[in-house]
Amino acid sequence: MNRGAAAAHTPRWGMVVDLNRCVGCQTCTIACKHANDTPPGVQWRRVLDVEVGSFPSVERLFLVTGCQHCAEPPCVPVCPTGATRQREDGLVTMNYDVCIGCAYCAVSCPYQARTIVHDERWYYGVETRQEKEVAHAERRGVAQKCTFCVERVDAAPALGLTPGVDPDVTPACSAACIAQAIHFGDFADPASNVSRLAAGNPVMQLNAELGTDPQIKYLYTTPAVPGREPSNEDEERLADPANPLVGARQTLWDWRAAMNWCFGGVSSGFAVLAALGAAAGAVDPARLPGALAGAAALMAIGLFFVFLKIGRKLRFWRAISRPQTSWMTRELYAVGVFYPAVAANLVAPRAGLEALAAAAAAAFLLCQAQILYRARGIPAWRAPLIPWMIFATGLLEGFGLVALAAFAWRGFAPAPAPFLPVAGLVLVLVNAGLWIAYRRTARARGIPPLARGVIGRAGVPLHLLGHAVPAILVAASFAAPDAAPALLGLAGIAAIAGGAFWKFAVIVRAGYQQGFALAKLPQRGSGERAAPARLTGLTAAPR
Amino acid sequence: MTASKKVPVYCYQCVSGPDLMKVEVRDGVALRVESNYDIRGAHPGGGRVCVKAYGLVQKTYNPNRIKQPLKRTNPRKGRGEDPGFVPISWDEALDLIGAKLRDIRARGLRDASGFPRVAVTTGGGGTPVQYMGTFPAFMAAWGPVDQGYGAGQGVKCYHSEHLYGELWHRAFIVSPDTPYVNFIINCGNNVDASGGVVGVWREADARVRGVKRVQVEPHLSITGALSAEWVPIKPKTDAAFLFALIHRILCERSWSEVCDLPYLKERSNSPYLVGPNGWFLRERESGKPLIWDAAEGRAKPFDAQIRDAALTGSYTVAGIEHGPDGEVIAHEAAAAQPAFQKLVDHVAPYSPEWAERECDVPAATIRRVADEYLAHACVGQTIEIEGVRLPFRPVAVMLGKTVNNGWGGYHACWARTVLAVLVGALEVPGGTLGTTVKLVRPAFSRTGSCLPGPDGFMRYEFNPTSREAWEARPQIRNAFRTLVPLVSSSPWSPALGPAHLPWLFQKKQPDHWPKETTPEIWFCYRTNPAISSWNAPEIAERLAEFPFIVAFAYTEDETNHFADVLLPEATDLESLQLIRIGSTKFTEQFWKHEGWAVRQPVADKVVDCKDMTDIATELARRAGILKEYNEAINKGAAGMALRGKDFDYALDPERPHACEEVWDAVAKAASHSLSHGSEVHGIDWFREHGFMLAPFPQLDWYLYPAIERQGLRFELPYQERIVRHGRELAHRLHESGIAWWDTQLKEYEFMPRYEPFPEIWINYARELGRDPQEYPFWALTSRSMQYSWGANVGLPLINEVANNISGHRGVIINRTAAKRLGIAEGDAVVIESVSGVTRGRAVLREGIRPDTVLMIGQFDHWKTPFAKDLKLPSLNSVSALALSLTDSTGSGSDVARVKLYKERAAQEVAA
Predict the structure, then answer these.
(1) CA proximity to A179, closest of A33, A29, A23
(2) CB contact set of B777 (below 8 Å; sequence gap of 6+)
């Protein structure tokens, strides 16, 4: 930064995009691809072709999308490494050399702005001379997104140029735009182009209700085209994957991620329930160290699946970097307490160590619950009931494994005690209730129709397999005490299967990204959407 | 790593260019493209380049490029035949062609039918000229060349607008005066996709300023999307809508209060008296058309002092009428009416209610749009431009492809221009302007081409239709001079003739016509008629009949599949050329500057290609016409005459000159002329600086000052001169026994009467013995800005970004209509017309009429690498090549009647 008179001024970089200028030509998209050398299929700047209404009352508009450099960026606090940060001037930056490619930022972005490319890609299948020259090995396997062409912006003071005014120091998309639809500048300077545009016209932000305060503001009116409120789009259109306003299913957190929640839930729940069982006299304390070791092994399997998934495996250790904000880091810290406690307890069993291990397992489960919930880019995950569901299901799965162990592991639970069936029943009821509430509130929580479809379809099998079967078997265990261990063991299997079933459904299949909600629209189009008649025309020549 | 440098070049891939760009180069490799921001203060599009320019780096390094000259080894030609191309050296290739050329020169340049033995086809809009170096000099030196084989011209272009626009107001292309306009009625004009950088830039500025644009079209295009209102009209009925607007103004509103009466009386032929036979009633002695001076109660010649020219009424006047072929009809006391009265009567039947039945637009909407047009017209207001006070009329009516060409195109063009004349909005600030001339000379100055002609109108060189001068034996195969008086005879005219007729006549010899022959050598450059013509598959069959094709070839494609020699010319970023920029050009490129810009090799060559200039020189040398070739360059065939009033940079005509040498001379002449000798720069200076500019007056955007200064009138609304040529042409053709052009001859009318134009396409099925009801949908096309002009279909980068825009993955169908047919998003569908079939994926949208389907761009490739794997449908595969679909100017329309069904259903039917 130059230290002149403006030294005290900290800019706030942002954009103003005019919906009545943008013609969807994709010049910004391709200029960005050139300036930033992005590989095939990756578009940091993308313009959607949006249609709302139905014939003969239709409106079409082009929506410039990309990283919004939010004032409250959901991607930054979740990052476990600090690779993604927010600068003082508002730019949300990426450090490719630090990022491990966990994709947590990508699923936390409600603007579909981030992606990870794991493989080498070339447009013709073979690398051309030019592609060789502009390759970016450092970006492989890590998160990437629009940088607002930070190198250009940062070069401005030394060159004595002004971002947003001089093309050489303006983001490529804005400089290249052939309609002057993308304005870049300093919102902290009231005299800047973007401040004046945003102050002098009605503006809207995308998905503003999520509290991200995006720094791309959209103009939507002209003297001939007033703005209007959005009309209710029918469900069918919002369930249409071809509709660009509808978020696609995320693929970055796939079945491997789901495995972490399955194994993580079972293992931590088991550790907690086993410890509680021991305290309640239902589990043989002597078997507890072994049980905890088993939990640790299961947890390791889950973590190994995550390890498989990340883009830069050798850097995985960097995930310990952000305990201040990232639940992913905190999960590792919980692991970091759990494993030593379990190991120490194996060597020298102590109640204190067991309590510590159980507490760490509970913390781990809490972290898992929070990780999913903080992924703000996926409406099905960020629902407020999700952390409760992950936690309660973990405990239910823990019950399941305890019950299974009680049946299969001689001496694990020597004396029949009401603890286990009662805990099981309570957990089944809580889980069933949570799922019902989750499904019922899904629409109100902004979960999109495609995800709601998955959730809706998962309900019956989940209630049958994960709730009804365990409940009946547990109830039967009261009626047939002789068969109780077997019945409870079966109930446990069903409970674990039910948990895995819904986690797969929600994480892998209902993981639809946040779409784009337009809070305001230009009033233009056909039929009812057309701009109003203007019979007292503009009669003056432009200056 | 060495530092990169940025090399200035221009992009002229589409007709709306040129725009200037820089290519970032490092170690001899072109890396990236960006706009040349150095010119942003002068270029009316902020110095930007559009999306297509960014494809040029990938174009350069496309691994599918032709890497050296190739020669065909399989003598059999056909779509299913492997050409068996084998590599040869440049010398071998040029020797082979040179020998053929010399042989032709020895035998005569024309064949037994009188047609040139050599033909050349280039892509549309004249853009190939901006890349072909001195090849035009080769053609000029050669002598007769048939440039009349169309690659889609007439169908793909604004044909009626080109021809009538040029006649009426030097408007080969029409544009609103976008920086000043306030209200635009846009019938199918897709300027926000096809208007280039400047069009998009200016229209966006205009919208933000407050322009209201009403878009009238069957599907909601890019431009429709950005308009305040979309009016979904039935295809090919725009003339009905426009006629009803005129009706509203003249028959329902008080026209004497809302129209620009001084403009009508003094700047149009509205007051010219029309005699009983429809011709202007003229003063016997002078032959000048008469005007009724209401103040004195007598008729006077149009150029006399007239105090109050009558626009309406009937008068008994003595005079003569000039009919065709010198016929003079004398009247002692003729009942005469002003042309304006004729106009009022002419449009009386075209009420909004009538139009609603015809074009499916509510009468109330038509009335409201007409009223809005009037409300914005500012009749009576003026504005000062560069110190001159001019009328200010910020309203415009724009037409788009398929509206302004083919049957009904004339009607729409006439109505649009009449709408401008009624409120005095033609060629004045804010109004409807032309931006370029191509048929009238001089081509570089619209205002300079505005010269006095007969009857107080601008001069216009019709192709002669008199008994003595009519060209009975066509000089080229499309017979533009023979059949189309209005297309004139400029270097552009051959391509604007009925450019599909050669293909049609090659298939079926017409009666009373020279035997249709194929050219002995056909050169094709930056064109792919086997994809871009109407009924493209049939064009491919015709190409297979050509004996010797020389194709300048970037990759293999559907046209050069039939070639005998492929020459890989140096492409956009590999060759050297200097071109004119600025002044006024299409589409919306009216500048406040004019000058020159360079295109140059930016990086190391990656294939064994050759600059077009060097190829042209070598061909000229081998054909034995080097001297004529050099002289052609000296005369200006490379864009600038090398000898001028006060300079002489002429090349020695006796020896071949290297590419650099040629363009260095052009650069010096160009800079000398531009700076009046004060700043002379060689080509190296241009290679460093990119461009050179001088001021161009904004006043020259408007024809009105030149018209007014010379006391001229716009030749509207009454079309006496055209009809006279039409009647004479009818005589000539009938004298020759030709009856196959009779339908076209009916289009010559004093004022066009509306015909139910859709019926022409609906009933075409009967010509092939089918029931029109089999084909219930209209199929249309629309511009893809990303792909426009089609040369970049082989670039996956373009494909990637284009796919963000709806319709690039298949055929757009109305969602409700598709549901009715059981077609879901992404389903494979068959689109079938009476003349062809094409296939693609269903793209369901709401912004299209239920009776219409839309196929963007031009695809259905079967040879071009990458493009052939896209499996995209194309209107060109289902449109018909037919005389009955050809209007009197020789153009057709991109429209067809089709049925559509799911691919699976088709297989079931087949089974």
Answers:
(1) A23
(2) B817, B851, B852, B853, B897, B898, B899, B900
Q: 3-class SS at B563?
A: coil
Give the span between the Cα atoms of B281 and B429, in whole angstroms.
Answer: 33
Residues A433-482: tens digit of each pLDDT = 999 999 999 999 999 999 999 999 999 999 999 999 999 999 999 999 88
pLDDT at B334 over 50: yes
Question: 């396409």: which residue's tokens?
Answer: B761
Largest CA distance in chain B: 91
Q: Is the pLDDT of residue B188 over 50?
A: yes
Q: Are A21 and B54 an interchain contact pair (Cβ–Cβ within 8 Å)?
A: no
**For position B842, which CATH number holds?**
2.40.40.20
> Number of C-alpha atoms within 13 angstroms, CB side, residue B135?
21
Q: List the domain range (segments joined by +) for residue B879.
A: 757-910
Question: Could you tell me if residue A523 is inside a domain?
Answer: no
| CATH for B255 | 3.40.228.10
Give the Å distances, CA to CA, from B760 to B328, B404, B523, B748.
Answer: 36, 16, 35, 18
Contact call for residues A215 and A48 (beta carbons, < 8 A): no
| Residue ending a domain, choose from B410, B436, B462 | B436
Q: Is B813 on the interface with A (CB under 8 A)?
A: no
If you measure CA to CA, which chain A residue comes closest to B191? A23
Q: In B, which residues are within 8 Å of A25 by CB distance?
A: 50-51, 193, 200, 785-786
pTM over 0.90: yes
Neighbours of B105 (CB within 10 A): 16
Question: With helix as H, strand as E and coil as C, how does A162-189 read?
Answer: CCCCCHHHCCHHHHHCCCCCEEEEECCC
Q: Contact A30/B207, CB-based, under 8 Å?
A: no
Cα A444 → chain centroid: 19
Q: Which of B48, B392, B806 lies closest to A541 in CB terms?
A: B392
Spatial contact of B148 and B499, defined as CB atoms under 8 Å apart: yes
* Tally of residues, chain B: 911
Instruction: Name the maximum alpha-carbon separation found in chain A.
Output: 96
CB distance B5 to B23 below 8 Å: no
Tell me: do A386 and A433 sit in the same domain.
Answer: yes
Scan for tokens 């006629």, then name that residue: B243
B872 burial via Cβ count (<10 Å: 0-12, 13-18, 19+): buried
* Domain, as residue range, for A265: 255-509
| Chain A residues with CB-CB distance to B60 below 8 A | 130
Number of domains observed in the structure of chain B:
2
Considering only CB atoms, which chain B residues are within 8 Å of A223?
Answer: 209-210
Residue A499's pLDDT is: 97
Scanning B185-292, the segments in alpha helix (DSSP H) are 191-194, 196-209, 222-225, 238-247, 255-258, 261-267
Distances (CA, A) of B726 to B324, B462, B480, B749, B883: 9, 11, 14, 8, 18
Could you give the percent of chain A with pLDDT greater than 90?
Answer: 93
The three-state secondary structure class of B257 is helix
Predicted local confidence at residue A2, as pLDDT:
42
- In this structure, which long-range contacts are made by residues B247-250, counting pairs with CB atoms below 8 Å and at least 24 apart in sequence? B247/B347, B247/B348, B247/B350, B247/B351, B247/B352, B247/B355, B248/B352, B248/B366, B248/B367, B248/B370, B248/B371, B249/B370, B249/B373, B249/B374, B249/B419, B249/B422, B250/B343, B250/B344, B250/B347, B250/B422
Chosen domain end from B415, B436, B457: B436
Which residues, at least 6 apart from B375, have a Cβ–Cβ distance to it below 8 Å?
A534, A535, A536, A537, B183
Return the C-alpha torsion angle A390, A396, A397, A399, nearest 10: 150
Same-domain check for residues A230 and A348: no
**Residue A369 in 3-state DSSP?**
helix
Chain A hits for B50, CB-CB cut-off 8 Å, are 25, 27, 178
